[in-house]
From TrEMBL:
Pfam families xref list: HIT
Listed PANTHER family: AP-4-A PHOSPHORYLASE, HIT FAMILY HYDROLASE
Keyword line: Hydrolase, Nucleotide-binding
Motif Histidine triad motif: chain residues: 135-139
Name of the protein in question: HIT family hydrolase
MF terms in GO: hydrolase activity; nucleotide binding
């Protein structure tokens, strides 16, 4: 007789995709409850080493970080270093750097991942869907033909094949070469 603790791993006709890391998002672990500058995960990331903060690039006024809850492998965020909520709050020089870093990041993602396109997006304010509304951030999501299958539609699940730390290192390695 097989006991319940012996069942995981017993061969059957199904392939399983184990994504226990997604429970952190589902259950709300480590989600910012307060996005003031004191509780802001983006401000906190800047205080850490690049590896610990999952930072891909630091510019003069802006930086790039891996998204902790990615839609696709390689999903990154471009942010100003200053804790501001809206795109219109950027200075002219910050806006210029923000745009230049975005363009460069798209080239890096294309070379590093072989993606065939990108989704760019900013949600301005919590009512617009921003998870961290008090710190402006732009999503860059690499896309491939056929990367949207039944999982997100039916099961509201996204399979991410690479660990954030590994993806960050690949992007860092490519950043200076593009």
């Amino acid at each position: 007789m097989i006991e319940a603790n012996e069942l995981p791993g017993v061969p059957d006709a199904f392939q399983r995709l184990w994504t226990p890391h997604r429970m952190a998002y589902i259950e709300g672990d480590h989600k910012p409850q307060d996005s003031s500058s004191d509780g802001c995960p983006f401000c906190d990331a800047q205080k850490l080493s690049d590896e610990e903060g999952l930072i891909v690039f630091r510019g003069d006024a802006c930086f790039v970080v891996m998204n902790l809850f990615p839609y696709n492998s390689g999903h990154i965020l471009v942010l100003p270093k200053r804790h501001i909520p809206l795109y219109t709050d950027l200075t002219e020089s910050e806006r210029h750097e923000f745009g230049e870093i975005t363009a460069h990041a798209m080239k890096v993602l294309a070379q590093a991942t072989g993606c065939q396109g990108h989704n760019l997006g900013m949600n301005q304010g919590s009512v617009a869907g921003a998870g961290v509304a008090a710190h402006l951030h732009q999503h860059i999501v690499p896309r491939w033909a056929g990367d949207a299958n039944f999982f997100p539609i039916i099961a509201q699940t996204k399979a991410i094949p690479q660990l954030l730390e590994n993806q960050r290192q690949i992007l860092v390695n490519v950043w200076e070469t593009v």
